[in-house]
Amino acid sequence: MHYPSCMARRNSQSTWPDTSTQTQPLTCALCEREVPELVQHHLIPILAGKRKGIKPQDLPTVGLCPACQQYLHSTFSINELATSLNTLEALQADEQVQKFVKWVRKQPATKGVKAKGRE
Ligand SMILES: [Zn+2]
C-alpha cells in the first residue's frame, strides 16, 4: 500500500494548527467519551507497518481512550487490526466493537482502567 507523500511537504505555509497547546476536551474517537487522557492508537499496528516498510511515525493513528485501546489490542490480533480493522470506520462497524462501545459508554470516563491507588 502506498501513501501519498504530499502531506509531508506542506511545511512552507505555516497553516498547521498548533496541537500542542490545545486545551479542548479530549474525546475518544470510538466511544466518544470525554476523557482525561487519550492514547494514540495505530490503525495499522506498528509491527504490521514494519512488514510493509512503513515507519511508525507514518502510520495513521486515532486518539482513543485507554479503555478502547486496551480492548482492541486484547480482542483482535495484529493481523486482524492490520487487514480488516485498519480504519476508524471499520472499527465502528464491527459488531464486537459496537457491543464494547455500548458498554463502555455507561462507564464513568474518569474511572481509570489501571489499578486504583490510595484515595
Ligand atoms: Zn473510548
Q: What is the distance, rounded to the nearest whole angstrom, between the alpha carbons of the first and last residues?
A: 49 Å
- The overall average pLDDT, rounded, is 83
Beta percentage is 5-15%
Main structural class: alpha+beta
Q: How many beta-strand segments?
A: 4
Helical content stands at 25-40%
Label the overall shape: globular
How are the strands of the biggest sheet laid out side by side? 1-2
The quaternary organization reads as: single chain
Q: Total helix count?
A: 5
Characterize the largest beta sheet: strand count, sense, and whether it forms a barrel.
2 strands, antiparallel
- CA radius of gyration is 16 Å
What small molecules does this complex bind? zinc ion
Q: Name the helix and strand elements from N-terminus to C-terminus, one letter apiece.
A: EEEHEHHHH
Uncertain segments of ≥5 residues (pLDDT<50)?
115-119
Verbal overview:
By secondary structure, the chain is α+β, with helices and mostly antiparallel strands. The protein has a domain at 25-104. It is 32% helix and 10% strand. It is built from five helices and four strands. The protein has helices at residues 46-51, 66-75, 78-83, 88-93, 95-104; strands at 26-27, 34-35, 39-42, 61-64. The chain has a two-stranded antiparallel sheet with strand order 1-2. A two-stranded antiparallel ribbon has the order 3-4. It starts with 25 loop residues before the first strand and ends in a 15-residue tail after the last helix. The model is unreliable at 115-119 (pLDDT under 50). Zinc ion (ZN) binds at residues 28, 30-31, 33, 64-65, 67-68, 104.
